Amino acid sequence: MLDHVTVTKFVSFLKKNFVVDKSPSELKASYRWAISDKAKNQLQELLSGSCSKTSIDEFNDFCEKHMWYDANVKLRKLFSEYFSANEMDLPVAKWIAQAWGRINGNHEQRLSEYLKRYFSTNSDVDYPQQGIATYSKLLAFRHPDKFAIFDARVAASINAILIMTDGDRKPDRIFPLLPTQNGQVRNFNTQLQQMQIPPIDDFYQAYLNLLKQAAEVLDTENGLALLDVEMLLFGNAERLVEEAKLAI
User: Fold this and answer.
1) pLDDT value at position 124?
2) What is the pLDDT of residues 172-198, one digit of tens each?
């Protein structure tokens, strides 16, 4: 887990660089995760009968206007509405991981394993690095108040902030370096590998605690929730890793 001083520095960095004196439109502009027409059509079939037409129309309107921050926030709200009467199943998991998340290597057997592990009555589970970018998406969509997506960009953003807020520019521990197709994040991860910094124990729980503590402060002072912090980190990954490279 991260110590109190590290968490405080992390939250202060977010406030100073992304929140204070920034308009809502500026915060939203960095998040550009588009949703394809094919994914939208599949989604409407999945949610038909479980979500109001008004909510679906609002989501489609955001997509048509390429307002991707608002569209993705609305998407999570749609699923909250859906899950009020339904549980996570394989068709929904496939849409989240593949159509929305664009992780096409997830075969049905693997997704079924995640469903059994994380959505059964057994609460004694672990959160390994293998598959984290997929199963954290499922958890975040199903329980947005408890879980957040952990992927290569989010991990790189946090590691970049840890480096820039550490006095020696070499934190004691960092979050796992996940594989990615993003060249800037991949190059940054290569640099971190060469620094041989050990990984954080129980990294996903440490990540959730970090975001929840950040959200508590930013929600009270600036109206940002857990999802907003996750999206802020994802959307600014390229900027943060480039700034951190200069600090290494």
Assistant:
1) 78
2) 999 999 999 999 999 999 999 999 999
Q: Report the C-alpha gap between 27 and 8 in whole angstroms.
A: 21
Domain end point (choices 92, 125, 158): 125
Backbone angles phi, psi at 174, to 5 degrees: -135, 170
Q: What percent of the chain has pLDDT over 70?
A: 98
The reply to whether 138 falls in a domain is: no
Q: What domain count does the chain have?
A: 2
Report the candidate in 239, 214, 236 with the shortest Cα–Cα distance to residue 226: 214
Determine, yes or no, domain membership for 132.
Answer: no
The pTM of the full predicted model, rounded to 2 decimals, is 0.95
Task: Kindly state whether residue 208 falls inside one of the protein's structural domains.
Answer: yes
Q: CA 49 to CA 174: how far, in whole Å?
A: 44
Cβ–Cβ < 8 Å for 27, 18: yes
Q: What does pLDDT average to over the chain?
A: 93
Side chain identity at residue 111, one-letter code: L
DSSP 8-state assignment for residue 16: I
Question: Domain boundary at 90, 109, 125, which?
Answer: 125
CA angle 31, 35, 40 (to 5 degrees): 150
Residue 16 CB neighbour total at 10 angstroms? 10
pLDDT the model gives residue 27:
81
**For the residues of 23-52, what is the DSSP string, one character each?**
-HHHHHHT------HHHHHHHHHHHTTTS-
Instruction: Provide the 10 A C-beta neighbour count for residue 9.
Output: 18
Instruction: Report in angstroms the alpha-carbon separations of 55 from 17, 50, 72, 95, 139.
Output: 33, 11, 13, 18, 22
| 142, part of any domain | no
Round to whole Å and give the CA distance between 157 and 175: 10
